[in-house]
C-alpha cells in the first residue's frame, strides 16, 4: 500500500468518526426534544382540563403566590361558574379558561402565563 493510500484511508477514518459524533449529537438533541414535547402534550392532556370548582379546590390547599384565582389571567374576566372548564398548569396549579388559548401559549412558551414557572415541578 502506498503512502498516499494510507493517508487517504486515515482521512476517511477520521471523517467517518466525525460523522458518527455528529450523528450521535443530532440523535441526542432529537430525542431530548421529543421527550420535552411529550411533557408538554402530557401537560395539555385531558387530566389537566377540569371544572373551575375542582381547580379552585386544588388551589385552596396550596399557597397562592400572586393574584387571585377567581379571574382568568388571559381574558381578565372572572370565572362564571363552578362547572366552567379550565386548563390547570400541573406545576403550580394556576388555571385559565380552557377556551382562552392557553394551550397555544403553553405549547409555545412552556411556562405558566401567570407565574412564569415551568409546566412540571423540577425533579
Ligand atoms: Zn379567560
Ligand atoms: Zn403558575
* Counted beta strands: 3
CATH top-level class of one domain: Alpha Beta
Catalogue the ligands: zinc ion
- The low-confidence runs, each spanning 5 or more residues with pLDDT under 50, are none
- Radius of gyration, taken over Cα atoms and rounded to an integer in Å: 24 Å
Count the DSSP helices: 3
Write out the strand line-up for the largest beta sheet, numbering strands in chain order.
1-2-3
Report the principal-axis shape: rod-shaped
Distance between the ends:
57 Å
Instruction: Using the coordinates shown, work out and report the CATH topology of one domain.
Output: Herpes Virus-1
Q: Kindly state the mean pLDDT as a whole number? A: 83
Give, in order, the helices and strands.
HEHEEH
Query: What structural category do the secondary elements indicate?
Result: mainly alpha
Biggest sheet details: 3 strands, antiparallel
Which percent bin holds the helix content?
40-55%
**What is the level-2 CATH architecture name of one domain?**
2-Layer Sandwich
What is the beta-strand fraction?
5-15%
Pfam families: zf-RING_2 (PF13639)
InterPro entries: RING-type_E3_ligase_ATL, Znf_RING, Znf_RING/FYVE/PHD
GO molecular function, one term: zinc ion binding
Protein name: RING-H2 finger protein ATL3L
